[in-house]
From TrEMBL:
Gene Ontology molecular function terms on file: methyltransferase activity
Pfam families assigned: TP_methylase
NCBIfam families: 16S rRNA (cytidine(1402)-2'-O)-methyltransferase (TIGR00096)
Catalytic activity from the UniProt record: cytidine(1402) in 16S rRNA + S-adenosyl-L-methionine = 2'-O-methylcytidine(1402) in 16S rRNA + S-adenosyl-L-homocysteine + H(+)
Alphabetized Gene3D superfamilies for the sequence: Cobalt-precorrin-4 Transmethylase, Domain 1, Methyltransferase, Cobalt-precorrin-4 Transmethylase, Domain 2
Function text: Catalyzes the 2'-O-methylation of the ribose of cytidine 1402 (C1402) in 16S rRNA.
Keywords: Cytoplasm, Methyltransferase, rRNA processing, S-adenosyl-L-methionine, Transferase
Protein's name in the database: Ribosomal RNA small subunit methyltransferase I
Top-level taxon of origin: Bacteria
Protein family (similarity comment): Belongs to the methyltransferase superfamily. RsmI family.
Length: 277
């Protein structure tokens, strides 16, 4: 039976690929990849002669069903991203959904992941973490996500372009300028760099070029302190607290109930303060 293989590829160092991944890429009939030029370098290194087919965000609507047709005709296809795991902030979701809808076999061939690689070396808590991927470009949308997520007791894993690292660090500072973060860049490559410290210190390091804006970045943000020791909302007024929940698309009544629960107060008391009764 034909199979769609989801194959993990190196995030930098070409040696970071499994025997199974190389064997799979050699055995399949077609490799669907983001950028044929990038995948061709990997193929040349491991003497993989399988034909390559572009599959990326700009052509996935028309190419998804073409690949499904090939799978139904008996071809086996490997899906790869430029680096790391397909589907993880990379194309492939629509193809996997379509393959399952058509009753086709989908098999994963694991490999490296930039977020977890950075987390291991960061020194930040690694027992609970939340993968966010890329933050929105607009500051308002960026802050909306950070304000929601940075109050959770979970280390955040964020991917970022070198062109937007400074903006993202400034947004993190607006939420909590004392929060511990870690920056990983050029992971597994010759000039790999992982730096951990308060966000304001690492922003200064970026501005002074001690952390060069080159390569793909992973930003890790330490989770909020345990609420038993520090209430995340303690510097907010009741009105600001309610508005925070409303910004998460809660209706006013639900937001007031949530604030009352946080503050261990009566709902009517919070209602009266919020409405200035």
């Amino acid at each position: 039976m034909s199979t769609l293989y989801l194959v993990g590829t190196p995030i930098g160092n070409l040696s970071d690929i499994t025997y199974r991944a190389v064997e799979t890429l050699k055995r399949v009939d077609l490799i669907a990849c983001e950028d044929t030029r990038v995948t061709q370098k990997l193929c040349q290194h491991y003497e993989i002669h399988t034909p390559l087919k572009p599959y990326h965000d700009h052509n996935k609507e028309k190419e998804t069903m073409r690949l499904i047709t090939k799978l139904k005709e008996g071809c086996s296809i490997a899906l790869v991203s430029d680096a790391g795991l397909p589907l993880i902030s990379d194309p492939g979701y629509e193809l996997v959904v379509a393959a399952r809808e058509h009753g086709l076999s989908v098999e994963t061939v694991p490999g490296p992941n930039a977020g977890l690689t950075a987390l291991m070396a960061s020194g930040l808590p690694s027992f609970t973490y939340t993968f966010i991927g890329f933050l929105p470009r607009k500051e308002k949308d960026k802050l909306s996500i950070l304000k929601q997520r940075m109050y959770e007791d979970s280390t955040l894993i964020i991917y970022e372009s070198p062109y937007r690292v400074e903006d993202s660090l400034k947004a993190i500072m607006k939420v909590d300028e004392t929060r511990q973060i870690s920056i990983g860049r050029e992971l597994t490559k010759r000039f790999e760099q992982v730096e951990t410290g308060q966000v304001n210190d690492l922003l200064d390091a970026v501005k002074s070029h001690n952390i060069p804006l080159k390569g793909e970045f992973v930003i890790l943000v330490e989770g909020a302190p345990n609420q038993k020791d520090h209430q995340w909302f303690e510097e907010m007024s009741v009105t600001e607290h309610v508005e925070f929940y409303k910004a998460q698309n809660m209706k006013p009544k639900a937001a007031i109930k949530a604030v009352a629960k946080d503050r261990e107060a009566k709902t009517s008391e919070i209602y009266n303060i919020y409405h200035e009764i």
